[in-house]
Amino acid sequence: MKKYIIWFICFALGLCLSLSLKAQEDFRKKAPAALPAPKIQLGNYVQNVLPNGLKVIVVENHKLPKVSFQVFVDAPISLEGEYAGVSDMAGALLRSGTKTKTKAQLDEAIDFIGANISSSASGLFGSGLTKHQDKVLALMSDILFNPTFPADEFEKLKKQTLSGLAEAKEDPEAIASNVASVVSYGKIHPYGELPTETTVNKITLEQCQKYYQTYFKPNVSYLIIVGDITPAAALAKATQYFGKWQKGTVAKTPFAAPTPPKSTQVNLVNRDGSVQSVIEITYPIQLKLNQPDYLATIVMNNLLGADASSRFYLNLREDKGYTYGAYSSINPDLEVGSFSASGSFRNSVTDSAIVEFMKEFKLMRDTKASAEELNRVKAVMAGTFAMGLERPQTIARYALNIARYGLPKDYYSTYLERLSKITAENLQAAAQKYLLPENAHIVVVGSQDDVAEKLKTFGPVNYYDNYGNPIKAPSAASNPGGITAEQVIEKYVQAIGGKEKLMTIKDEAVTMEATVQGMPLEMVSLKKEPGKLSISVSVGGNVMQSTVYDGKKGQVTQQGQAAAMSENDLVKSSYDAAIFPELHYSKTGHKLSYKGVEAINGADAHKIVIEDPKGNKETTFFDVKTGYMVKNMEATEAGTTTLEFGDYQAKDGIYFPRKVTITGALPFPLEFSVKSVEWNKGIDDTKFKVE
User: What is the pTM of this model?
Assistant: First the structure.
C-alpha cells in the first residue's frame, strides 16, 4: 500500500529467515602476503580423440584419491534471438531429471557417494572419490544422454530466471554490465545479446530440447579427466561411458569482430533519485591466451585495478575518498576479449572519478611501473596461482585452455618462470596497446538530474534504457502544459476517491500477504487519526516484528525484545502514520518538485520528487491518464528500493492498489497482494499503546 510498509517487512525477513542479507564486505584489507612459489606439478598431460570426435584430456595426479570429469561442449557462439536465455535454461535443466531418475533421485544418488555433479550450457562437471568413479560417470552419462527436461522443473527455472531479471532491473551494477555489453559488442553479436522478460517468457521446453539436440555433440566437445587415474584407465572409462555419444554437424555462424569506438562514447542510464552513480569504462579488445604479450597484459591490469593495493583503488578510494572500491579487469577470449574499469561513486564526484580513471590510464601508458610495484604484483599472482592448483576445476580449466588455445603442454608448468621474467617495459608496452581511454565506452547508471550536464565534458551523452536500447534524452524541464507537482497530487487524490471522501476516513486496517521461499508472510497495518500507527509482520504464523507509534512515543519489538524508537524514527513515523499523507504535504512541510513525464511500463507518468523536512527525497510516478500512483523510488547509501503499484480496485468508494511489487530491498523481488482493507471500524486506542 504505502512505502513505509517495506522497511518493516524487510527488517523482519532478515530476522526470521536468515537470508544472508549482510552486505558484501568491501575487500579493503591489504593484499595477502604472497606464498612462496612452489614447484609446479600439474601431472602428466595426455590427449586422445575417440572415434566420435570427443577429445579426451587426461591430467594424472595421484596426490589425493579423487578424480574429476568435465564434459565441455565448445559450442560456437550464436544468436538466440527471440529466445535469448535459452542456452542457460537448457543447461540448467540437464541436471533436473533423466529417463531413469527424477531430480530428487539424482540428488540422492549423488549425495550417497559424496560426489558433486553440475550442469550448464557448457556441459557437465562431476567429481568424487576414485573408488566411486564408475558411479559418477554412470550418473553423468545418464544426465548427458537421457535428459527429460521435466515440465515442473522448467516452470520453476523460468520463474527463478524472471525473478532474477526483475531484481537486475533495479541493480545499477547489473544495468551497467548489460548496457556495457550492448554498446561494446552490439546486439547483432552474441556477446551483446541480453535475455529479457519477453524472450524468457517465449522460451519453451521444446526450445530447450532443441538447443541440447543442436549443440551437445561429441565432435565439438572435450572430456577433461583430472586426478587419481592413469591415462590408459581414463581413456578406457571415456570409451565405456561416452563412446556411444553420436557425432553430428554443428553449424558455425561467422560474426564480425567488434572493435573499440573511434572516439569516447558517453552512455547514460537514468535512475531517478540515485545518490550514487555506477561507472563502467569498457571496450572490446583482441586478446587470447596464446598471444606473447598475454601474461604481461594481465600483470599490467593487476597493477592497475585488480585489488585493494592497485592504482585505481589507492587513488579513487584511499586518496580521493570517492568510493569504497574501484577495479579493472581484462578478459581474454577466443572470439573477442574485453577491458573494463568500474566503481560506484557519489553523484557529486561522478565526473571527477572519470577524470581520475583517465589519469591512471595515461600514467600507466606513459611511465614505467616501479620495481616495488612490479614485484608486489608478481608475488601476489604467484601465490594465487599456487593456491588455485588445489582445485580440480582449476587444473581442468588449464588443461582445456592448452587444448583450445593451442598452448605448449608445459604452459602452466612454466608459468612462474615466465611470470618472473616480466619487466616494467613489458607492462608499458601492454598498456600502450590495450589501454584505450580515447576509444572507450563510458557507461554511467545514475540520476540524470545530477550527472548529465557533468558528463557532457567527455562528449555527447547518449541515453539508454536498462537493456541497452537507445532512447531519447529525458527532458526534466519539459512541461509544455505548465503542470505543477501540486496539480499531480490533487489529481491522484481525486482519482482514488476525492479529498472530501478521504477526509472522512478516521482509521484504517490493511492486511497484505506474500510468499517468501515457500513460507507465508503476512503484514497487518493499523492507522488511526491523528497520527497513530501499528504494524506487525508474521512469517509462518509467528509475529517476528512489530512497531507501535502513539503520536508521541514509539516502540519497536523484535522477537520479543522491545526498544524505544530513535528520534529519527519518531519523525519518520509521524509522517507514515497519516492514512493519506498526500492530503497533508502543505502542513508537514514536504517540498514537491515536478520533473516531467517518463514512460513507466509503457505508459506516460508524471515524475514528482518529494522531499521531507529532513531532506530525505523520494521519486514518485503518477499515471498521466488515470492519476494513480504507479511507482515509488527511494535511494539511500545502501541502495535504491522500488515499489510498483497495480490492479487498483475500489472499496467503499476508495481506490487502492491490490498488488505491490518491491525490488531492491532484498536479493529477490517481493510480490504482495492485499488481502483486506477496512476503514472506520473504530480501532481501539489500546492497539497503539506504547509500553
Answer: 0.81
